[in-house]
Amino acid sequence: MADPHHADDHHDYVRGTQEIGEQVATFHVFVLLAKWGSLAMACVLLALTMWFMPNGSFLGGLIGAVVMAVAGWWFLHERKPAH
Predict the structure, then answer these.
(1) Angle of helix 21-52 relative to helix 58-76, nearest 10 degrees?
(2) 82 versus 45: which is more confidently predicted?
(3) What distances in angstroms separate CA 12 from CA 7, 15, 22, 33, one per listed residue?
(4) C-alpha 54, offset from chain centre
(5) Of 17, 24, 27, 28, which one is least surrounded by beta carbons within 10 A?
(6) Is a pLDDT exceeding 70 seen at residue 55?
(7) How far is residue 21 CA from its own chain's centroid?
(8) Helix, strand and coil in the chain, % to nearest 5
(9) What is the pLDDT of residues 9-50, one digit of tens each?
(10) CB-based contacts of 72: which residues, under 8 Å, 6+ apart?
(11) Using CA atoms, how far apart are residues 57 and 80, in angstroms rounded to an integer?
């Protein structure tokens, strides 16, 4: 017969005691990659759009992408708490 469960047996897991350091670190890496990857893709898309639009130029696309990258960095970078 299968392993019987006794009435006085309890689960080994106690809420709030599991180590979650690895999950937290993985989540932070995912957020970082999503945030900066989205900014990089937006900059590339803007540069290509401005470059290949009618009467567009490579230099105009490059300037637009650099401006977007600087503005994106300003809004997305981690700020130290004003403590």
Answers:
(1) 150
(2) 45
(3) 14, 10, 20, 36
(4) 34
(5) 17
(6) yes
(7) 18
(8) 60, 0, 40
(9) 566 777 877 788 899 999 999 999 999 999 999 999 999 999
(10) 39, 42, 43
(11) 39
